Amino acid sequence: MPNTFTQLYIQFVFAVKHRESLINKEWKDELYKYITGIVQNNKSKMLAINGVADHIHIFIGYKPTIAIPDLVKDIKLASGSWINDNRLTSHRFNWQEGYGAFSYRLRDVDEICRYIHNQEDHHLKKTFKEEYIELLNDFAIAYEEEYLFEFIDNLYSTPTELMKSQ
Fold first, then answer.
1. Could you tell me the pTM of the whole model?
2. Level-2 CATH architecture, domain 8-120
3. Going by DSSP bridges, is the β-strand pair 8-15/45-52 parallel, antiparallel, or unpaired?
């Protein structure tokens, strides 16, 4: 559309169904390339993508040619199918329902990219649940804990134990 100008930076966060640690270090880079292709095919720009075995962060320069829920749906459906078609897990892979979407200013882009690229180190100190609730609170998003992702509490007593299990 002529004379339409946007500058939108969005971070998406979503988890593997039941928060299972299924994203394997051996193939996660290929998954990230695949997801990058989906983002690019939807006219947006991948700025950073990373995660750990049970969840993922995607940070994009968002071009509003597709609604955010539709973009996330495309990413989840296509990447889940790619994982299943390539038999990368021992049983059917699915993403959990729902996601977080957080917007940022241009001046925040470098900081958010560093944060996403350092997910493995970050999760040595903080669980995904702690991280996600902190994001919701930082963005003043009202939530009811019963509607958050399915968090498996007390499975690992520390983030370090979770990292060792991957």
1. 0.85
2. 2-Layer Sandwich (3.30)
3. unpaired
